[in-house]
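In the current project phase, our protein records have gained a structure token line. A sample record follows, to show the layout:
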Amino acid sequence: MTLRSRLAAGLATIAIILVAPLGYALLSLGNLHRDSQYLRDNELEASLLLSRLREGLNDVRREELALLFKRDDVTSARDAMNQGVSRVGVLADSLSHFDLGAFAKEIGATVRQLRDAAQLEFDATLAGKDTLADTISAQQFVPALSHADTIVMTAEHSIAERTRERVARQALEINQIRTWSAIALVIALVVALLVAIWLTRSISGPIYDLRTGMAAVADGDLDYRLRVPADRSDEFGTLARSYKEMTRQLAELDKLKAEFVSVASHELKTPINVIIGYLQLLDEGVYGSLSDKQKDVLRTIVVQANTLLRLVKQLLDVSRFEAGGGRLEPRPIQIDQLLSELESAFHVLAMQRQVTFRVERRDGVEDTVYWDLDRINEVLGNLLANAFKFTPKGGEVDLVLGPADDGVQMQVHDTGAGIPPEQLPRIFDKFYQADNQFSAGAAGTGLGLAIAKQIVEAHGGTIRCDSKLGAGTTFTITLPTRVQRRSSFQRVPTV
């Protein structure tokens, strides 16, 4: 799945799971809206109709009483009562529109009884038979009217009960909607969170890995291997394959560069030796005497030629170690003698620069170790020379030897300018020089630490640097006490 399709699928999933609870809530609200409309258009209208029907029955009762007691205008009273009974009949027929057909039939039958009793009561009253009219009223009209009231009351109770049931059902449905909506929302949020985590990990993980790999390449580490498989079919697979091809090409270029430096250095060594040889002959007067001015020029040329020869030798050393040709010739070394020679060698430099130089051997260090003396002297000499170079007048330089696990730990500490923390990872790179060169007594080539690291690793040891800007620097070397003789140092392939 490509990155674009993965993002589209993730966003679509999140959208669906977030919209689903909303859709369910809207559907439930639609059902509630229909129930509310039903209550408004059916139950409420039915209740109002029953109220008007009750009022109509009360009007009929009043008109019937007027018929009994209104002797002067019996006909108008009868007409008013008939109109009231007819209105009650019309209202009763309307009940069938609100699912009250049974009540409509009963009230309709009662209305017919009322109409018949009203006619008989009118005839008796018109004939002056008041007793008969009262009897008809008491035995026929009033019972029929009371029965109609009872039916209306029963219908009202039925409407009220039906309304209560519907309202209770709606309340239950509302609670269910609230519960299921909350559950659906929680589920949606959890799923959305899981999808977001999946998207983040599936994208940020490879991006972080690629960023780390590019940073490693920028720092010169061409051996870094990505965790992202190169056979992936998405964009990250394409980037991983490009990264792999890039590191391969850079490794080939690095190898070609090392070979070029080795060949160039080897070829430069011969003409430089010839130049130095002729300079020595000039200095010895083989080609005639020189004036004082010519001797000054000669000395300057000799210094520069020796500097150039030293640089060529350093380049050859670096090239040999990188190509796997760094030879080691370990032999027994007396620790006390090694320290004494180093102390004597740098005593004059310490006095010249007015720097306190201390050499310390701690308890637990073996008296004899098996190292390549020339190489170790080169490493310690380079570190001590750098320490003196960057330490101002009145500062301190210490060389301390102490025991380590199955080996010896050597520390060269100074109170000099220090190294910026962001530059510490690169100080062992070839030709790299930190930004503290302004405090050095003389400029360097940037090869000393690279050679020191190669020599230490050829001995099976480690070297690290700790520094604080403005407070000083400490180089720590850990070496085994015994190193086997080897004709070459096997370099880890960079391809």
About this structure: The first strand starts at residue 331 and ends at 334. Residues 438-443, 487-495 have pLDDT under 50 and may be disordered. The chain has nine helices and seven strands.
